[in-house]
């Protein structure tokens, strides 16, 4: 009975060494654990090995793939989390603001970049680089080089939305619902500037000469 138990123990140790040896090749085990180590079935680890780590000698853990540290406490991400990211569990990074992707290797702008803007890191801060015709933190504001006058709003590159009473590419042309007569000019909504000797709301009246 004793010889059977001894043979079983030898077989168990040999199997475990073989199994761990196979796992070791693709694991992130501590460098202090060498191939062909001696497994002590009576070994105790305090604090205990975490995340399915194996206590192979007193206070010596062999970590399962994806974990590292004296007690296999810390997750291991490969490639490493970049740009200040933190490894939460094997292969899963928590990224700081401004970065994304599996390993925090991509620059990300909160809310994205609109209208063809490109998100890039500027002095370590994620920022949208906008095309020449757009501006704003997300490239959401159109630019009108000609300007939008008289309360007009730039709604698309070079295009103004004009308030009632104004027209033109820069909202610079006044509209008079009734035309100005006798060479008069519409200078603001429904207001005419008359040429002498004419007057009146629409320059319809001729001044009488004395």
From TrEMBL:
Keyword Signal: yes
Domain EGF-like: residue ranges: 41-73, 105-140, 172-204
GO molecular function: signaling receptor binding
This protein's record includes keyword Disulfide bond: yes
Keywords from the named record: Disulfide bond, EGF-like domain, Signal
Source species of the chain: Amphiprion percula (Orange clownfish)
Cystine pairs: 45-55, 63-72, 109-119, 130-139, 176-186, 194-203
Protein name: Schwann cell-specific EGF-like repeat autocrine factor
Gene Ontology CC: one annotated term: extracellular region
Span of the signal peptide: 1-25
């Amino acid at each position: 009975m004793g010889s059977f138990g001894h043979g079983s123990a030898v077989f168990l140790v040999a199997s475990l060494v073989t199994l761990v040896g196979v796992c070791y090749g693709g694991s992130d085990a501590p460098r202090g654990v060498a191939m062909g180590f001696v497994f002590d079935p009576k070994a105790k680890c305090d604090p205990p090995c975490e995340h399915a780590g194996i206590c192979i000698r007193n206070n010596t853990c062999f970590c399962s793939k994806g974990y590292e540290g004296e007690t296999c406490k810390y997750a291991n991400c490969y490639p490493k989390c970049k740009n200040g990211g933190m490894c939460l569990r094997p292969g899963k990074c928590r990224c700081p603001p401004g970065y994304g992707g599996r390993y925090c290797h991509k620059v990300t702008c909160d809310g994205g970049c609109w209208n063809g803007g490109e998100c890039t890191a500027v002095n370590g801060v994620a920022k949208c680089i906008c095309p020449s015709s757009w501006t704003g933190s997300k490239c959401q504001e159109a630019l009108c080089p000609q300007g939008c006058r008289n309360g007009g709003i730039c709604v698309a590159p070079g295009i103004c939305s004009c308030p009632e009473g104004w027209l033109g590419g820069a909202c610079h042309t006044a509209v008079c619902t009734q035309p100005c007569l006798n060479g008069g000019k519409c200078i603001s909504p429904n207001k005419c500037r008359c040429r002498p000797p004419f007057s009146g709301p629409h320059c319809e009246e001729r001044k009488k000469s004395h």
